[in-house]
Design goal:
This protein is of the alpha/beta class. It is 47% helix and 11% strand. Helix 19 links the parallel strand 13 and strand 14. The longest helix is centred in the N-terminal third of the chain and has 35 residues. It is globular, with a radius of gyration of 26 Å. The N and C termini lie far apart (96 Å).
């Protein structure tokens, strides 16, 4: 019997889930500390699940089709496959080739990513229109200047002719018409998306020539789903053409509209100081962590938290005050407008609760782990869902559905629940003492201000420093975390390699949060990590070498910043001419595929880390990685090694510098006032 018991125990131990090694799981010391604490408390996290649940080798290559009930059909790539000699014979039951299956899967990811960002934009447009019509007391038009700037792009007049005189239109009338025109972009019956003409003229003509101008946002998503049904579109080139339409509807449609309307409603970001990482939580305060992507609720929580009665209420419960912090893109939204500190990235959401100090986590949509409910059960934390399309099945989750018409009341109810919960907190609190100072809030408008001053905001200074070689080029580094790689490692390694080689970095999303945690969003970091040219520019202008441009929908800011560089002159006529490259080092979401493709088809060389769901279809992969560049001037690429990844970006930047004839060293010229005045001519 003793031997049988030993065997049973051994069997049980063998079946026990493995635990993630905290050091191997993350480069962040705060995360390492909380992963170890999770093990001590017996709480499972995404890091542990990643160790125990291996990815499907066929699915990860993009060659599993489950679009009908005859399958799923799995078409593994033979180990000895040679694309130069072998004839492709792999087929699904319907006869679909590996290229068709991979292309269908790829553009379905584009459609899903476009849906996520564009539905976010639709929500903002609906709230915007309600505010413009004075139907809600919680919102108002805060940035009237930006409203007047975007109105012409939506064919909304800002002046009116009366008795032969040109008069300014009423700002409320303009706001209502902007809201109506914006909302129509999701479903208008004819025409094309209005924002497409914000791109350089040469880029617009490329889209027009190739027949990929999006008609309306919803239609392009629906058509992707139709084309990818069994027996419809079976040509990978034609499939990717529709994927291009859908992705452009995201980047130059839903996401760009979301960013602009949020700026008008909540204020256009300008640089401000804050802090990042879990050390921003406070043991003697009510900690409310806001997580998700839509800022329409989080803006109200910030506003209510600053009311005197709400500042006093925590004291009656034994707390000194309220400490708001954010995770994921909601974090970036409330950081860039209010300085609310960052609590962490996508992979730190469970860890924030494991501190034991989180009195409430308030979530809306996208990137939210269902396992948060299971972690919250182990603590006193109130987990509150707020969106009608994003609920959880667990009984301990509280749903308070947010309504823009009662925004302030909803926000107040949520905060009071969190404050009342402070008294239920146990003494078992462990907040990692790790946080870094940061500067965030670099909108296109604020970059122009920093480069050109109050009266001469311009991108000319940036162009000039790219041309003279102090700045080698521009790197857009964005995107998620993925537990299949070491948390934050690839993000930071790539960014440091770029700025070391004088490439200025524009960042959004969880990459921005990772950079903040590493201290790269501080102007002082330029002297430590940058090459001499970029360090000199950063010191002179007073900016960090890594510019925080906001959340993942704010990738549209990168597109518009690049467009401003083209307009400033001297670096070509289109986005594909610029010495610039894009990167998503640790991507995991379908949104990343949509973003990557709208950057590629906007003319940007775009690298992903990890893997891409196309490698099992070499012909289709070659089309994305090589042939697409002949059509759009941009292309996909894949590189898992972060240093090689960064150096590929640098090599592309150098290639573009050579094509522009600015690859040679130039003498520095001292300019007098006459020379400077000539710049305006």
């Amino acid at each position: 019997m003793a031997e049988e018991k030993k065997a049973a125990v051994a069997k049980k131990v063998a079946k026990a889930p493995k635990l993630a090694d905290p050091i191997a799981a993350s480069i962040d010391p705060a995360s390492q500390e909380m992963i170890q604490r999770s093990h001590d408390l017996g709480i499972e996290t995404a890091f542990d699940r990643a160790v125990n649940l291996k990815p499907c080798n066929i699915g990860i290559q993009g060659i599993c089709c489950k679009n009908c009930a005859m399958g799923p059909c799995r078409l593994p790539l033979p180990k000895d496959y040679n694309e130069t000699t072998d004839i492709e014979t792999r087929k699904g039951i319907c006869g679909a080739s590996a290229n068709t299956i991979a292309a269908r899967n790829f553009i379905r990811m584009i459609a899903a990513g476009t849906s996520a960002h564009s539905d976010h934009g639709r929500t903002v447009a609906e709230v915007f229109l309600a505010a413009a019509k004075k139907e809600t007391k919680g919102y108002e038009i805060k940035d009237k200047i930006k409203l007047l700037e975007i109105a012409p792009h939506l064919n909304v007049a800002t002046t009116v002719e009366v008795d032969g005189k040109t008069l300014d239109r009423d700002i409320d009338e303009i706001a209502v018409e902007v809201g109506e025109k914006a909302l129509a972009e999701w479903g208008k019956p004819e025409g094309e998306l209005l924002y497409l003409k914000r791109a350089p003229e040469a880029r617009y003509e490329i889209w027009k020539k190739n027949g990929v101008l999006p008609r309306n946002i919803d239609r392009e998503v629906v058509e992707v789903m139709h084309r990818t049904c069994i027996g419809v579109d079976q040509d990978y080139k034609n499939l990717i053409k529709q994927g291009t339409r859908a992705s452009l509807a995201d980047g130059w449609g839903g996401s760009m509209l979301a960013t602009d309307l949020q700026d008008v409603l909540f204020g256009t970001p300008y640089p401000l100081a804050s802090e990042g990482n879990m050390g921003v939580m406070k043991k003697d305060h009510v900690n409310v962590v806001i997580h998700g992507h839509e800022p329409v609720l989080s803006e109200m929580i910030v506003a209510v938290s600053q009311k005197k009665e709400m500042l006093d209420y925590p004291k009656s419960k034994g707390a000194k005050g309220i400490q708001l912090s954010g995770i994921c893109c909601t974090a970036n939204e409330i950081l860039q407008r209010h300085g609310v500190p960052l609590c962490g990235t996508f992979l730190q959401q469970e860890l924030a609760i494991i501190t034991g100090a989180c009195d409430a986590m308030v979530v809306d949509v996208q990137c939210i782990f269902q396992n948060l409910a299971n972690v919250a059960k182990c603590f006193h934390t109130k987990l509150i869902t707020t969106h009608p399309i994003a609920k959880m099945e667990q009984e301990n989750v509280l749903h308070i559905e947010f309504n823009e018409h009662y925004a302030l009341e909803d926000a107040e109810r949520i905060l009071k629940l969190a404050i009342d919960n402070f008294q239920n907190r146990s003494d078992n609190v462990q907040i990692p003492q790790h946080k870094s100072p940061l500067v965030a809030g670099f909108s296109v408008e604020s970059i122009a201000y920093h480069l050109g001053g109050t009266f001469r905001g311009t991108f000319y200074t940036l162009n000039d420093n790219i041309i003279n070689g102090r700045i080698r080029g521009i790197g857009g580094v964005v995107g998620c975390n993925n537990p299949r790689s070491r948390h934050n490692e690839n993000h930071i390694a790539i960014v440091k390699e770029l700025i070391k080689n004088d490439v200025i970095v524009l960042t959004t999303g969880c990459n921005a949060i990772a950079c903040a945690m590493e201290g790269l969003l501080r102007p002082e970091s330029a002297q430590v990590f940058c090459g001499p040219g970029l360090a000199e520019v950063c010191e002179t202008v007073g900016i960090p070498p890594v510019l925080h441009l906001g959340s993942c929908v704010d990738n549209s800011r990168i597109l518009l910043a690049a467009t401003e560089v083209v307009k400033a002159g001297g670096l070509g006529n289109d986005l594909c001419d610029l010495p610039a490259a894009g990167s998503a080092p640790e991507w995991m979401s379908e949104k990343a595929i949509a973003i990557g493709h709208y950057f590629v088809t906007s003319g940007v060389y775009t690298l992903f880390g990890g893997t891409l769901p196309v490698v099992g279809a070499p012909v289709f992969q070659k089309y994305l990685f090589e042939e697409l560049e002949k059509v759009y001037g941009g292309r996909w690429d894949l590189e898992a090694d972060p240093i090689k990844h960064a150096r590929k970006m640098i090599a592309h930047i150098d290639k573009k510098r050579k094509a522009l004839g600015i690859d040679k060293a130039r003498d520095r010229v001292l300019m007098d006032m006459t020379d400077r005045q000539a710049l305006d001519a």
